């Protein structure tokens, strides 16, 4: 088909070549192929662009002008829309700013009102408390005035008792103490310690409590069921034999007796020293010389029958052995829990205290005490064999966990195990269990002004238990049944950290604070005069 313009029908040809490659017709290009976006000559349109949408160049120019105008119009509309949005945002910001300023002012006003109300309420509470406190103090003064004769009589009885004029077994003393106990208990709703001038009465009340405790023990002494009950009530009088300082010291050390006058103890985090009772160093060992233990802290140790030491590194959860020449070998690695205490039992077995947590007592720590039979090849000193004898985790009747963070242990002559178990970082309890895992009793101190903090325990030849109380500056003696017997040390400004008895129980070594070690005469040996002091 032909048209008036070039006699060509637009889009009527059928050709597969979409491009114009003719160079000879460049000056004659009067058409435009929309598909190929090329300027075309008449020949190329007929030959190679059949079926394509094409127009003349004049028509294409007109279309481009229309497209440009449409684009500019849309651009203007977008610009106007943007300006309108900016105007709306400015108006919104202005409105919100005014609202925020108003809200801030309201908050300030409300805060001032609340402060005033709190101050008024505090003044009223203080006034009511002062009135109530004065009334209670007046009541207490009246009560003390009424009981003045009885208090004086009680103090007189205390003086007689302490001087030995009255015996703790006198019936009239027991009867009178019971009568005064009922009267003193009626005073307990009042806070004696907060009132001036009543310190003497408070001291008398505390002395009365101590007297009642002594009387109660004298009445129950006959129920002790053992072969040593006749000897347990023998008097123990500490007599200082020597004392010495060792430096640099640790806050808490470990004592391990070798003989009557020699003991192993800490000198630094990595060192152990063998000293005599005069403080003279006989031998010193440094576990840091072993490359595997470089930077590790020697946390606890115990002496074997051949005087070799077994110690643990808590961070590595490992057990090591060191002979008297300083040779160190590893016995076991990757223990289940962190080892916290070691003890060689009289039958040669090894007792290990474990804790599931390293330091954090407040969280759910689980404690365990294990007795192991350790077989070591004495020729090679390697490849040890461990045989579990007994695990102590729960009471024998499965009524509950025995330990939280067991720390130190001692074996009594009646085979009971005495375990110091930490409850928090500043409190502990002494737990005594038999070899079947039955909890026999717990002990948490006497006459406490601060939490009971035991860090060491020992047992003598008569099944008496010696335990320290660091925060209250005391050393306690208990019977094997758990009854408090007496204090053998109670001096302020002294902090007993560790204690140990010599093999014959003739001497008691006590470590105080960071630098002081004291050696006391504990018992006379039977060879001295045939009796126990």
Automatic annotation (TrEMBL):
<feature type="domain" description="B box-type">
    <location>
        <begin position="15"/>
        <end position="57"/>
    </location>
</feature>
<keyword id="KW-0862">Zinc</keyword>
<keyword id="KW-0479">Metal-binding</keyword>
<dbReference type="GO" id="GO:0008270">
    <property type="term" value="F:zinc ion binding"/>
</dbReference>
<keyword id="KW-0863">Zinc-finger</keyword>
<dbReference type="InterPro" id="IPR011042">
    <property type="entry name" value="6-blade_b-propeller_TolB-like"/>
</dbReference>
<dbReference type="InterPro" id="IPR047153">
    <property type="entry name" value="TRIM45/56/19-like"/>
</dbReference>
<protein>
    <recommendedName>
        <fullName>B box-type domain-containing protein</fullName>
    </recommendedName>
</protein>
<dbReference type="InterPro" id="IPR000315">
    <property type="entry name" value="Znf_B-box"/>
</dbReference>
<feature type="coiled-coil region">
    <location>
        <begin position="61"/>
        <end position="95"/>
    </location>
</feature>
<keyword id="KW-0175">Coiled coil</keyword>
């Amino acid at each position: 088909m032909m048209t008036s313009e070039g006699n060509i029908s637009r889009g009527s040809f059928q050709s597969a070549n979409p491009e114009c490659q003719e160079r000879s017709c460049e000056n004659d290009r009067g058409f435009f192929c929309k598909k190929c976006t090329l300027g075309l000559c008449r020949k190329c349109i007929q030959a190679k662009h059949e079926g394509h949408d094409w127009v003349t160049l004049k028509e294409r120019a007109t279309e481009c002008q229309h497209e440009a105008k449409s684009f500019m119009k849309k651009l203007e509309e977008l610009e106007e829309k943007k300006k309108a949005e900016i105007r709306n945002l400015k108006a919104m910001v202005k409105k919100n700013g005014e609202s925020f300023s108003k809200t801030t002012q309201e908050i300030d006003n409300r805060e001032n009102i609340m402060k005033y109300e709190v101050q008024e309420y505090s003044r009223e509470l203080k006034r009511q408390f002062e009135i109530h406190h004065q009334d209670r103090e007046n009541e207490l003064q009246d009560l003390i005035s009424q009981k003045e004769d009885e208090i004086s009589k009680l103090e007189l009885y205390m003086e007689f008792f302490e001087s030995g004029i009255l015996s703790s077994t006198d019936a009239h003393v027991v009867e009178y103490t019971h009568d005064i106990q009922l009267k003193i208990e009626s005073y307990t709703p009042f806070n004696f310690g907060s009132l001036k001038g009543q310190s003497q009465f408070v001291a008398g009340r505390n002395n009365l409590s101590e007297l009642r405790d002594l009387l109660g023990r004298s009445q129950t002494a006959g129920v002790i069921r053992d072969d040593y009950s006749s000897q347990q009530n023998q008097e123990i009088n500490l007599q200082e034999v020597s004392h010495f300082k060792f430096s640099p010291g640790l806050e808490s050390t470990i004592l391990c007796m070798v003989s009557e006058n020699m003991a192993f103890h800490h000198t630094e985090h990595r060192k152990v020293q063998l000293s005599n009772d005069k403080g003279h160093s006989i031998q010193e060992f440094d576990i840091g010389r072993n490359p595997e233990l470089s930077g590790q802290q020697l946390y606890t140790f115990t002496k074997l029958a051949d005087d070799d030491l077994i110690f643990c590194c808590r961070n590595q959860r490992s057990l090591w052995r060191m002979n008297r020449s300083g040779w160190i070998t590893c016995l076991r690695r990757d223990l289940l829990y962190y080892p916290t205490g070691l003890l060689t039992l009289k039958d040669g077995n090894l007792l290990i205290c474990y804790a599931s947590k390293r330091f954090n007592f407040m969280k759910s720590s689980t404690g365990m005490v294990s007795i192991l039979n350790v077989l070591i090849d004495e020729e090679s000193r390697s490849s040890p064999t461990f045989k579990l004898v007994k695990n102590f985790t729960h009471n024998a009747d499965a009524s509950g966990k025995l330990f939280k963070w067991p720390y130190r242990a001692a074996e009594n002559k009646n085979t009971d195990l005495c375990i110091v178990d930490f409850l928090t970082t500043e409190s502990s309890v002494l737990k005594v269990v038999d070899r079947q895992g039955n909890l026999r009793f717990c002990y948490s101190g006497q006459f406490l002004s601060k939490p009971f903090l035991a860090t060491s325990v020992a047992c003598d030849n008569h099944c008496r238990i010696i335990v320290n109380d660091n925060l209250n500056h005391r050393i306690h003696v208990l019977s094997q049944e758990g009854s408090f017997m007496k204090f053998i040390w109670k001096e302020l400004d002294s902090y007993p950290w560790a204690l140990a008895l010599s093999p014959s129980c003739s001497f008691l070594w006590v470590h105080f604070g960071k630098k002081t070690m004291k050696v006391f005469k504990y018992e006379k040996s039977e060879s001295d005069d045939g009796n126990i002091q």
